[in-house]
């Protein structure tokens, strides 16, 4: 499997997912480039083209476009299991994210009442009140935490200059029904052992999420020297971390 191509539309799928069943994707980001506040060494979409905590509205879909496409898709696929905000980078960077999330929630209630709202976010905006209020609308607010300290964040996630480690932890600590997603890697950059791993475990114990899902990456990735954490090791880490933090830790692999 090569580096994944970017999504070319606002709504995509439905996609059959082991985690989310039949999932309808919503992309609030540009279709011509990857816009994210991270440039993770393992990202299957490749390097981040525009790394920032802000977005050029000229390249983003209008709220009306998003809602029109979501409405049409839900009329066609009313039995989807999840409506998932993800796409070509960090979805909460769209300035109208709270407004769109609220409107999609209403469409879900009208057209696909059994579907759940899911979000994949890297948590770099979760400290903002307007974003945090929108996160409360999601049944599954799945937020990234690959690092337990600023140094590991810089090495693995390579955030935009404006991103604050303290703000990430602050925001995560205030998200209701928080689900943490962590990608563990080894090799030249590692968060699966040593001081980086210990800091990650300590941060999880502090945050007390409802559950944690840990993964590793598959090849290829944008950077050389990145090694996958094998399934048996992920399972061992899940068991150890669960005992140490009191959280439910689920190990998954590709």
Structural class, judged by helices and strands? Answer: alpha/beta
Using only CA atoms, what is the Rg?
17 Å
Average pLDDT taken over every residue: 94
CATH superfamily annotation of the domain at 11-181 = Aldolase class I
Strand neighbour order, sheet with most strands: 1-2-5-6-7-8-10-12
Beta-strand level of the residues, as a percent range? 15-25%
Q: Which regions contain 5 or more consecutive residues with pLDDT less than 50? A: none
Q: What's the CATH first level of the domain at 11-181?
A: Alpha Beta
CATH topology heading of the domain at 11-181: TIM Barrel
Helical stretch count?
7
Write the element-wise H/E pattern from the N-terminal end onward.
EEEEHEHEHEHHEEHEEHE
Q: What overall geometry do the principal axes of the alpha carbons give?
A: globular
Helix content: 25-40%
Q: Sketch the major β-sheet.
A: 8 strands, mixed
Number of strands: 12
Give the CA-CA distance, first to last residue.
Answer: 12 Å
| CATH architecture classification name of the domain at 11-181 | Alpha-Beta Barrel
Describe the structure in brief.
This protein has 254 residues and is of the alpha/beta class. Helices cover 32% and strands 20% of the residues.
What does it look like?
The chain has 254 residues and is of the alpha/beta class. The protein has a domain of 171 residues: Alpha-Beta Barrel (TIM Barrel), CATH 3.20.20. Helix content is 32%, strand content 20%. Strands 1-2-5-6-7-8-10-12 form an eight-stranded mixed β-sheet. Helix 1 runs parallel beside helix 2 and helix 2 packs parallel to helix 3. The longest helix is centred in the middle third of the chain and has 15 residues. The mean pLDDT is 94.
């Amino acid at each position: 499997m090569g580096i994944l191509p970017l999504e070319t539309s606002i709504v995509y799928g439905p996609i059959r997912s082991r985690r989310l069943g039949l999932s309808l994707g919503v992309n609030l980001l540009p279709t011509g480039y990857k816009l994210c506040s991270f440039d993770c060494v393992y990202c299957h979409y490749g390097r981040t083209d525009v790394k920032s905590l802000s977005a050029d509205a000229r390249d983003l879909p209008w709220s009306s476009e998003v809602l029109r496409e979501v409405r049409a898709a839900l009329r066609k696929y009313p039995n989807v299991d999840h409506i998932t905000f993800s796409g070509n980078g960090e979805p909460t960077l769209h300035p109208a994210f709270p407004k769109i999330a609220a409107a999609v929630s209403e469409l879900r209630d009208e057209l696909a009442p059994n579907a759940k709202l899911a979000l994949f976010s890297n948590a770099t905006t979760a400290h903002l009140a307007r974003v945090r209020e929108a996160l409360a609308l999601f049944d599954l607010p799945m937020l990234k935490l690959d690092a337990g300290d600023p140094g590991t964040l810089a090495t693995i996630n390579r955030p935009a200059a404006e991103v604050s480690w303290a703000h990430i932890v602050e925001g995560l600590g205030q998200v209701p029904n928080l689900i943490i997603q962590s990608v563990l890697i080894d090799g030249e950059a590692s968060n699966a052992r040593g001081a980086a791993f210990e800091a990650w475990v300590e941060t999880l114990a502090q945050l007390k999420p409802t559950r944690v899902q840990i993964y590793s990456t598959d090849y290829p990735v944008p950077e050389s020297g990145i090694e996958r954490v094998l399934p048996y090791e992920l399972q061992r880490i899940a068991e150890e971390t669960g005992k140490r933090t009191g959280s439910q830790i689920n190990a998954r692999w590709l």
